[in-house]
Design a protein that fits this description.
The protein is of the alpha/beta class. It is built from 6 helices and 7 strands. The protein is globular and about 70 Å long.
Length: about 190
C-alpha cells in the first residue's frame, strides 16, 4: 500500500515576498505591516493562488467537521498551509520606551487543502483531529495568533483591535440608533398647531 502525498499548494521563493516566511517546521507563513497593507496582502494572495486561498479557520467547517482548535493544531504540526498578517503599530510605554503592538492576525487558508483534508479524514475514518486537552488547544491557538519569534521580546505586545466589551457597546449603540430611526419613520410625531 502506497502512502498518499498530501496536495499542499506550492509557495515559491518569489511568493514569499508577498506571504512572508514560514515558522520553521511548519507551512504557516507570517507577514506584518499596516492596516492598509493587509488589504493589499489579501488581494495579492488571491491573485497569486488563483482564488484558492482565502478561507478563514472558522470557514474550514464547510469542508471538514473540525473545530478551530483542530485547524490551529494542524497548522502548528505543519500539516496545513496558512497565511497570517499581523497589523502592527508603534506604542510608547508609560516609561517612554517604544514597542511594537501587534493585533490578532488575519488568517487565510487554502480551499483545495481543506478539501484534501476532508478526503483524508474519510479514508482514515475514526482518526481524531481535535486537540485532546484544553492545554493542547490553547497551545495551538497561541501558536497561530502569536509569532513564536516574539516570545520573550518585551518590545512587542499583542493586543485586540477592540475589546469584547467595546464591540458589545458598539453593537448596542448601533442597534439603538437604528431602532430609534425606524420608530421615527413608522410613527411620526404629530405636528403641533
Amino acid at each position: 500500500m502506497t502512502k498518499l502525498e498530501f496536495p499542499f499548494i506550492q509557495v515559491t521563493a518569489e511568493a514569499r515576498r508577498i506571504v512572508g516566511e514560514p515558522t520553521p517546521g511548519t507551512r504557516l507563513y507570517r507577514r506584518e505591516g499596516s492596516h492598509e497593507e493587509s488589504g493589499e496582502w489579501f488581494e495579492a494572495i488571491g491573485k497569486l493562488f488563483e482564488g484558492d486561498v482565502g478561507l478563514s479557520p472558522g470557514g474550514v467547517t464547510m469542508y471538514v467537521p473540525v473545530s478551530r482548535a483542530a485547524v490551529h493544531k494542524r497548522l502548528k504540526e505543519g500539516r496545513l498551509t496558512g497565511f497570517t498578517f499581523y497589523v502592527t503599530s508603534e506604542e510608547t510605554t508609560f516609561l517612554g520606551k517604544k514597542r511594537k503592538a501587534k493585533e490578532r492576525p488575519y488568517i487565510v487558508l487554502s480551499v483545495s487543502e481543506c478539501k484534501a483534508w476532508a478526503e483524508e479524514m474519510k479514508r482514515r475514518l475514526g482518526y481524531e483531529e481535535e486537540p485532546k486537552t484544553d492545554s493542547e488547544a490553547r497551545a495551538a491557538n497561541e501558536f497561530v495568533e502569536m509569532d513564536p519569534k516574539d516570545k520573550g521580546n518585551k518590545k512587542v505586545i499583542y493586543k485586540e483591535a477592540m475589546s469584547r466589551a467595546e464591540i458589545v457597546s458598539l453593537v448596542q449603540t448601533t442597534v439603538r440608533a437604528v431602532v430609534g430611526e425606524a420608530i421615527k419613520k413608522l410613527m411620526p410625531s404629530k405636528r403641533r398647531k
